[in-house]
Amino acid sequence: MQEERILSDFPKIQCPFIRQTFQVNKDQWKKHGAKLGLKTPEVYLVVNKINPGFEWVFDDPDTFAVEKLNGTNVKIKTEAGRLVAVSNRLNVIDPLQVMKGKPFIIEGIFRAIALGYVNESGEQAGEVIGPKLQGNPYKLDWHEWYPFGKSMEHLRYKSFHEHERNFTNWSNWFKDHLVSRYFTKRASKLGIDEKVMAEGVIFYNLKRKEEKKTYMAKLRRDMFDWYYKDLIDILDYDIQGRNEVEDQDKFDN
């Protein structure tokens, strides 16, 4: 039955900084909003205030940073080498339905199988990336499902522990130096002298996971004001933020 193939949704991941809503210039938004991914004339930006409960991102030595791939989240389930369930968020994907729907997701999974990324049994979550997703920032000619477990091992920013963890340092890092580790590895193999910026990072703390505590947080380049400033004026933005407290759960992206 289809109900048996429904996998759990991905956990909601919050930002380690407080995010607040700011209005933008409406005329500029009409011209550039689509390019910047803005559906409405407002942006949801980080301010220099730590999100309560996420102090561990800044002060726990067991926290590490991993590249956040820019595609679509897909969870799979295998049993004794058989692919038995696929879901894109809460949307069930029939792996045998190849004539309609989203066949590029299945393409990505089977490429991952060929690369040895898929376990023989169990549930795995990952990101499908490629030509049909997010403008194909990694310049792929195919789709690929990249498991989050592999990201933690191979896409970790090893220099993360070498710098003080604060708003100013991370803003500068994300603006000018947050290069995609996935693309860098691919470019090295192909002999390409080119760099692509990462979408952002996921912060992990596996010790907290063992303790059943919140162990993931996310931060993206488009959460900073400088991401928009060349094209759109942000009204009344202040790095220190407002005294108003917004519900952080309302920020879905």
What can you see in these coordinates?
The protein is 24% helix and 24% strand. It is of the alpha+beta class and 253 residues long. The protein has two domains: 11-65 and 168-253, no CATH class; 70-154, no CATH class. The strands form three sheets. Strands 6-5-4-7-8 form a five-stranded antiparallel β-sheet. The model has no long low-confidence stretch (mean pLDDT 92).
Beta-strand portion reads 15-25%
**How confident is the prediction overall: mean pLDDT?**
92
Structural class: alpha+beta
Number of domains: 2
- The total of beta strands comes to 10
How do the helices and strands follow one another from N- to C-terminus?
EHEHEEEEHEEHHHEHEH
Main beta-sheet annotation: 5 strands, antiparallel
In angstroms, what is the radius of gyration?
19 Å
Helical run tally: 8
Q: Going across the major beta sheet, what is the strand order?
A: 6-5-4-7-8
Shape: globular
Task: Give the termini separation.
Answer: 32 Å
Low-confidence stretches are none
Helix content: 10-25%
Q: What's the arrangement of secondary structure elements?
A:
Layout: E1 17-23, H1 26-32, E2 42-50, H2 56-59, E3 64-68, E4 72-79, E5 82-88, E6 91-92, H3 103-115, E7 122-129, E8 144-147, H4 148-154, H5 167-177, H6 181-190, E9 200-204, H7 206-210, E10 216-220, H8 226-229
Antiparallel strand pairs: 1-2, 3-9, 4-5, 4-7, 5-6, 7-8, 9-10
